[in-house]
Amino acid sequence: MKLIEVASIVGGVVYGDEDLEICEIRPPEEAQEGDLTFLFQGGTTKAGVIIASRKIEGRSGIVVEDMKKAMYLLLKKIAAARKEYCVSAQAIVEDSACLATPCGVEPFAVIRRGVKIGAGTLIGAHCYIDEGVLIGEHCELFPNTVVHGNTTICNFVVVHANTVIGKEGFGYVKETRYEKIPHVGGVVIHDFVEVGSNVTIDRGTVGATVIGDGTKIDNQVHIAHNVKIGRDCIIMGQSGIAGSSKIGNNVVLCGQVGISDHVEIEDDVVVYAKSGVFKSLKKGRKYSGIPAREHQAVLRAIARLYAGRQISK
């Protein structure tokens, strides 16, 4: 790709040789002549082409206003160009499954009867898509993903490897021994959701577990039965949300946050890492600690705890 072509994708201003051919995109410390790099901060690089917020003397490059957006636009363009849409002869696609055109299915994936998959969707190797699952357009399921029945995945959803969607939840009743409560509900994942690797999303006992538009879920997160998550939330790694809890819109859960069952977290809340949430949280506030309290109150309590004490190194 030529420098001028990259500039048209990222919406930047070219300086230097606009016809310069770019071989690869690499980090600043690894880039060599012929490579392109994004220089977010000061430092040195051997890259022949630099995208930055200012002009770098002695190099060719592109000046952009928003570095992160420029990276997103370029990498998205490159990733889209690498996709191939074909159904492998080594995949198992049952007769009544309906795959739109184009649609990609990699080797050893299993797509059961009654499944419907929209145009532009890719199903990775060794995925298992159970009977009656609905998957929309322009989705991508990476290898070894398992999607159980009564699951609806809408459009532009990405699910990374080894994730399990729609398994039975962890619900039991004590008789002479623990007996499993049947879970007959489902899962609904709305548009533009991204689900990380090794995530488990349980189906509802009755009704559905719901993930709202634009929500991003990191690796190794557990979402239990009948949880409702709103729009544009960020849920970071190793967090767990217990059954029937409700998460509002634009909520951020940092790493290893634990949320008890039947809790409601209102819109625009931030819960900091390793917090334990045992009761409902109010809109627009920041929380931390175990149990989670308003973050400023926690900081004041810590300051009082250590006031006048000399902390050993």
Automatic annotation (TrEMBL):
This protein's record includes keyword Nucleotide-binding: no
One of the Pfam families matching this protein, by short name: Hexapep
GO biological process, one term: lipid A biosynthetic process
Domain of life: Bacteria
Molecular function via GO: N-acyltransferase activity
Alphabetical keyword list: Acyltransferase, Lipid A biosynthesis, Lipid biosynthesis, Lipid metabolism, Transferase
GO terms for cellular component: membrane
Gene3D superfamilies (UniProt xref): Hexapeptide repeat proteins, MurE/MurF, N-terminal domain
Protein name listed in UniProt: UDP-3-O-acylglucosamine N-acyltransferase
